[in-house]
Amino acid sequence: MLKIRISILALLCSVLCQAQIDSAFHFTYKFSYVSSIIYPGLSTGAEIPLLHINKELLKKSKPWYFKERFITGNLNWYHHPGFHDNLYITAEWVLRRTRYRGFISEFSLGPGFSRTFLGGTTYKVNDNGDVSVIKLAGYNYAMITIGGGVGYDFSMHKNLPFSSFAKMNLITMFPYNSTIYFRPVLELGLRYSPYKSRHRTVKGPLTTLNQK
Amino acid sequence: MKRTYIFCFLFLLFIGCQKESILISTKASEVFYVENLGASMRVFVEGNTASHIFILIIHGGPGVSSYFYDTKYISTHLGDKYAMVYWDQRNAGASQGTSNGKDLHLGIMVEDLKKVIEVLKFRYGQDISLFLVGHSFGGLIAADFVTTPGYQQMIKGLINVDGSHNYPLNDTLTRQMLLSYGQREISLNRKESKWKPIVDYCLAHSGNFSEDESMQLEKYAGDAENLVDSVKKVNITNFILRYAIKDAYPLTAILSNLLYSEDSNFNKELAVTQFSSSLNTVTVPVLVLWGKYDFVCPLLLGEDFYNRIHSTNKRFAISPVSGHNMILQDNKLFCDEISAFVSQFK
């Protein structure tokens, strides 16, 4: 199982690798620690911004907060000893609101796909009583995740292209023993937005794709 | 692409070189899974595997988990001498699978148990001594197992703890016990407001119980146990808080499986299942442990089991402070009796 975990870790890291940073989209990269009570895990992914709307208070010219919409792709893993290791990918629709003081609140929802690896050697016994080991035993599940969280965007007041966040996700996997398996997952992490850094450096306005 | 192929090749080599470790020691603690018909069932082995004596717990339910049977007291008082085996049945506890509800049947569970035993012998040696402990619904699986031709030869002994071998008889005896005990308590003016609805229900439902009636009787049986002052109370919430983190409970999986199994059509099959007529084929040594105040599986059910088996070595012990969960309510008697029984017939 240790080797499987190392492989998963390498896979998670490789998701962040990129040869060229320029692209039509302004990606934001995410790396986080995920945990269910005490069971550890990691998550990494990228966000593609779809929409950016400034909201202003009445009779005030200064924007109060802005709303953003993203599509995110995430690769996640957690380890529950004796139960399973779960490697899952999710695609989420994210609604995020960032106040000009830097505070973030967000909501996300999306489908996913899970592959579990059972938390112990798995045996199969045939009708003759012969016992064999099943390699990489586990199951594939469809998933839906829903979550909400808060955070702080350091780029709002400092020249730091980072934001931190804490998010509570509920992942549901099905069909799990002909029913639905659900698991609350706490996510603590950082997002890195290279495009924000570049905009700050040239002292230009903060723009994103489809800005209104 | 070449690099991808090389990476895939190395990855496959990497995972193909896993070596399994099986611990033969006085303090083993290991998990493995047994796959059968779409279910991968968790088996946790803890304690003295070097003894070559294994005590396999068949938990209740259907849908309850073996996690709730693994207590510090049992680890200390039985696990130090023998290896304790905690098996999560299909669709229970940490057992996993996908669309496997169609295979939730008693006959398949008995085959699951047989395969778990075969894997235990594969891992720890064909010469191991094996004892089964069936609790509640686990008693039904155990009764089915030992009455299946040729199967009882796989074990050294059977321990029936508040187990049900005959569901229709079980319902009849539960109603009888609730009625007689309740009427007595009411006549003595003890908690009559709580006993009255139970007694009224029993008077209104006299036999040929439907599934709903059977479930209601079971619920009242649980309530009744809490009304008897002599019964040692067990706080399940405290129990879970104490062990959930230490033993890495997959709590939401346990809950999902329990809810599914409780509502499953499987229960209709169980409602008419009985092994009274075939218990005369049982010849292995048997220990019967029962709670005096068990309304869920009344004492008379244990006596019926005891009287029907043909084992020459059999013993019946009653806990005066227990209801249906003797394993937790009278853990000393439970461990002492099993320890003596196993040491005699190992």
CATH fold naming of the largest domain in chain B: Rossmann fold
Tally of helical segments of chain B? 13
What proportion of the residues of chain B form beta strands (DSSP E)? 15-25%
Radius of gyration of chain A: 20 Å
Any idea what the shape of chain B is?
globular
Oligomer status: heterodimer
Tell me the span between the first and last alpha carbons of chain A: 50 Å
**Helix content estimate of chain B:** 40-55%
CATH topology grouping of chain A? Porin
Question: Measured on Cα atoms, how large is the radius of gyration of chain B?
Answer: 21 Å
Number of helices of chain A: 2
Give the beta-strand count of chain B. 9
The termini of chain B sit apart by 60 Å
Count of domain modules of chain A? 1
**Largest sheet geometry of chain B:** 9 strands, mixed
Task: Summarize it.
The complex is a heterodimer of chains A (212) and B (346). Helix content of chain A is 10%, strand content 61%. Chain A is mainly β.
Task: Write up what this structure looks like.
The complex is a heterodimer of chains A (212) and B (346). Chain A contains two helices and ten strands, in the order αββββββββββα. Chain A has 212 residues and is mostly beta strands. Chain A has one domain: Porin (Beta Barrel), CATH 2.40.160. In chain A, the strands form two sheets. In chain A, strands 1-2-3-4-5-8-9-10 form an eight-stranded antiparallel beta barrel. Chain A has a two-stranded antiparallel sheet with strand order 6-7. Chain A is elongated, with a radius of gyration of 20 Å. The N and C termini of chain A lie far apart (50 Å). The C terminus of chain A is likely disordered. Chain B has 346 residues and is an alpha/beta fold. Chain B has two domains: 255 residues, 3-Layer(aba) Sandwich (Rossmann fold); 57 residues, no CATH class. Chain B contains 13 helices and nine strands. In chain B, strands 1, 2, 3, 4, 5, 6, 7, 8 and 9 form a nine-stranded mixed beta sheet that branches. In chain B, helix 4 links the parallel strand 6 and strand 7. In chain B, helix 3 crosses helix 4 and helix 5 packs across helix 7. Chain B is globular, with a radius of gyration of 21 Å. Chain B starts with a helix and ends with a helix. The interface between A and B is large, with 40 and 44 residues. Strand 6 of chain A pairs parallel with strand 1 of chain B.
